[in-house]
Amino acid sequence: MSKPKVLIAFYSRNSSTEILANAIAQGAIEEGAEVRVRRTRELVSDEVMSQIPGWSDNAKAMNSKYEAPSEADAEWADAIVFGTPTRFGSISSELKAYIDGLGGLWFQGKLNGKVGSVFGSTSSLHGGNESTLLSIYTPMAHLGLIIVPLGYSDPAMFKAGTPYGATHVSARDSLKPDDDHLAVARFQGRRVTAVARGLLHAKVLAAAA
Q1: For residue 46, with 0-12 CB atoms within 10 Å meaning exposed, 13-18 middle and 19 or more buried, which class applies?
Q2: Distance CA 83, CA 91 (A)
Q3: Where does the record place the Flavodoxin-like domain (predicted)?
């Protein structure tokens, strides 16, 4: 059986969400997945970006490391993991634009039955991590993804994260994800991969029946 294929499509401005994305990728690879990590692109003008110290420089650095996610990436994947910082308690426009751009695949039914999962970060305590992750569940359901939350199915979940997905609070970008938060992210990668593998195995058995 081929390796489960996992797409991690994220947006990050100051690296907290990026760090979680790479930890999820690590967990997925440990579980035997083939992984693509992609960063969505800015939608606002350079003028707007210049008002936030470091935004432009960080964007250039991250965009040099990661390709932008494409329709082809989503079609390729057996599992799609979306990651975003909170924006006023909800999904970032950069990630939402990518999801909205999957309408062609949705219309053709090509996303039905793929695994879907989410993770995110926020700058302030109670800044909307859980509401943001839950807000992404809605378009995932419309796309036909099989939503995979984390629950409390690993000891790491009793130290950090949420039952909906890995999270981090950066305290106005003064803190990076620590070992406990990274452990949750790696578990998310493993869990998503294991579920995707199970679904692939079920398809093989169904085809052979």
Answers
A1: exposed
A2: 9
A3: 6-192
65 in helix, strand or coil? helix
Q: What stretch of H or E contains 77?
A: none
Query: Would you place residue 124 in the very low, low, confident or very high pLDDT band (cuts 50, 70, 90)?
Result: confident
Q: Which is it for strands 167-169 and 115-122: parallel, antiparallel or unpaired?
A: parallel
Q: Which residue has the tokens 């991969």?
A: 193
Taking the C-alpha atoms of residue 34 and residue 59, their distance in angstroms, rounded to an integer, is 25
Phi and psi torsions of 123, nearest 5°: -80, -35
Domains in the chain, start-ordered, CATH in brackets? Answer: 5-208 (3.40.50.360)
- What single DSSP character describes residue 85? E
Tokens of 18: 């990026």
The span from the CA of 72 to the CA of 178, in Å, is 33
CB neighbour burial string for 131-164, b if at least 16 within 10 angstroms, e if fewer: bbbbbbbebbeebebbebbbeeebebbeebbbeb
User: Average of pLDDT values for 22-27?
Assistant: 98
pTM: 0.96
